[in-house]
């Protein structure tokens, strides 16, 4: 019984790791480094100043 729970825990851990890596790759693909490293909260404030060109394109059209 404990062996099954141990393997189940390892499987859940592996699934979470794969999910985290896939999410990191997706975020890296969607946003540039300046947006990710910005200290301003949210992209909406950046759009007001025109500092996020890839996000502004999505809003405009």
UniProtKB/TrEMBL annotation:
Superkingdom of the organism of origin: Bacteria
Name of the molecule in the record: Uncharacterized protein
Organism per entry: Sulfitobacter aestuarii
Lineage per the UniProt record: Bacteria, Pseudomonadati, Pseudomonadota, Alphaproteobacteria, Rhodobacterales
């Amino acid at each position: 019984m404990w062996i099954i729970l141990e393997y189940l825990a390892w499987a859940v851990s592996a699934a979470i790791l794969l999910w985290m890596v896939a999410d990191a790759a997706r975020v890296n693909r969607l946003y540039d480094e300046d947006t990710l490293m910005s200290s301003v909260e949210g992209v909406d404030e950046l759009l007001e100043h025109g500092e996020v060109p890839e996000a502004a394109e999505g809003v405009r059209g």
